[in-house]
Amino acid sequence: MIRCLAVDDEAYAVKIIADYINKVPFLELAGTTTSAIDALGMVQQGGVDLVFLDIQMPDLTGIQFLKLCGSKCKVILTTAYPEYALEGYEHDVVDYLLKPVPFDRFLKAAQKALNVLQPASNTAPTNPPPAPPLPETSPNYIFIKGESKNKYLKVGYDEILYIEGLKNYVSVFTPGQRIITYQTLRDLEEQLPRPPFYRVHKSYIVSVNKVRMIDGHTVYIGDTSIPIGETYRDEFYKVIRED
């Protein structure tokens, strides 16, 4: 068994990885934490073979963790930002998973870790355990933080029209309500699938499925007009043209 540690500053993201670990026969969940510093202590104490590690974390980033961790365990990076992939591989990571992570991609990364930690030259069972069945579909919803510490609201992807980020909170707009959550727009962006969700402005994420019209540098969803920021225009227009 490969003893695994799930590390992410978002509790919901940790839960997803922990659930995935529990589905794989040759993985064992050794622990979870939202603190990279606590994770480093766990690794240094021993008992951890593989760490599923977020890159963007306060106090200690994933890359800094890799430098401090050395060869004490293997690491699979998880993030929404592909630009860190090269630097991660320079530190000999097993794999690099982009959020939101589908289970089939997670399983492929786990198999890579198995090949690294328990190579074929080792004594292997004649009949290895079968891989767990893949889920029929990926999740079609997200849990959004509520106003209290342990409150989460389940919202279907098809319900979300657009998301607006303000100073200290984010507003998620659906046809029937406006949900206010005290987290950053970047945190939500990491959890939402692309497509249909795309950042079009430093303060807005839209669902392309809900776009009624694009006129110049403005997106219209219902009667709401949303500006397309200069930083995001090229990528967003490319998505629209490909659709």
UniProtKB/TrEMBL annotation:
<dbReference type="InterPro" id="IPR001789">
    <property type="entry name" value="Sig_transdc_resp-reg_receiver"/>
</dbReference>
<feature type="compositionally biased region" description="Pro residues">
    <location>
        <begin position="126"/>
        <end position="136"/>
    </location>
</feature>
<dbReference type="InterPro" id="IPR046947">
    <property type="entry name" value="LytR-like"/>
</dbReference>
<feature type="domain" description="Response regulatory">
    <location>
        <begin position="3"/>
        <end position="114"/>
    </location>
</feature>
<protein>
    <submittedName>
        <fullName>DNA-binding LytR/AlgR family response regulator</fullName>
    </submittedName>
</protein>
<dbReference type="Pfam" id="PF00072">
    <property type="entry name" value="Response_reg"/>
</dbReference>
<dbReference type="InterPro" id="IPR007492">
    <property type="entry name" value="LytTR_DNA-bd_dom"/>
</dbReference>
<feature type="region of interest" description="Disordered">
    <location>
        <begin position="118"/>
        <end position="137"/>
    </location>
</feature>
<feature type="domain" description="HTH LytTR-type">
    <location>
        <begin position="144"/>
        <end position="215"/>
    </location>
</feature>
<dbReference type="GO" id="GO:0003677">
    <property type="term" value="F:DNA binding"/>
</dbReference>
<feature type="modified residue" description="4-aspartylphosphate">
    <location>
        <position position="54"/>
    </location>
</feature>
<keyword id="KW-0597">Phosphoprotein</keyword>
<dbReference type="Pfam" id="PF04397">
    <property type="entry name" value="LytTR"/>
</dbReference>
<keyword id="KW-0238">DNA-binding</keyword>
<dbReference type="InterPro" id="IPR011006">
    <property type="entry name" value="CheY-like_superfamily"/>
</dbReference>
